[in-house]
Amino acid sequence: MISLWEYIPGPEKEVMAVSNSSSKASLFLMELIMSILFFSLSAAVCVQLFVRSHTLSRDSLQLNYAVIASESMAETFYAADGDLAALKATLPDSYYNEARHTVNIYYDSSFRPININDFTYTGRYILSGTLSEDGDLKILTITYTDKKANKEIYSIAPALYPKGGAE
Fold first, then answer.
1. FRET label pair with 86: which of 37, 77, 98, 108, CA 20 to 30 Å apart?
2. In a domain, 92, yes or no
């Protein structure tokens, strides 16, 4: 069987061979560029997903610690019958400000309680309980705040009538 290629005279045969191979090379380069573009876009999407999952994980961890610490303070408030001095005595590492009717606990970035003097350097979170009274009803507004991000993570306001209060 004789191919059509054999009937083309010499110089034209070389020009067709060069243009055919250059069009194959340009198609290959275009395909390679498209593949690189596709993988770059895929990598960008994956990086965004990993960053978002890390942020959600960190926020979830902060919320878990905030809920546990706040609930602990609320239960201690109930056990102390609304007395902040007794609350301070029960909670280690807490600071009681009698004039402001507050109890604070300071935490570092690993959620460990720290001294109030170290808070300026290593502190990040504050668990604060502020007592207010409405007649016999005592309300402790508890907030867990991230001072670095300047945002409130969790808040709860347990209320109780002290024993021997409203009868």
1. 108
2. yes
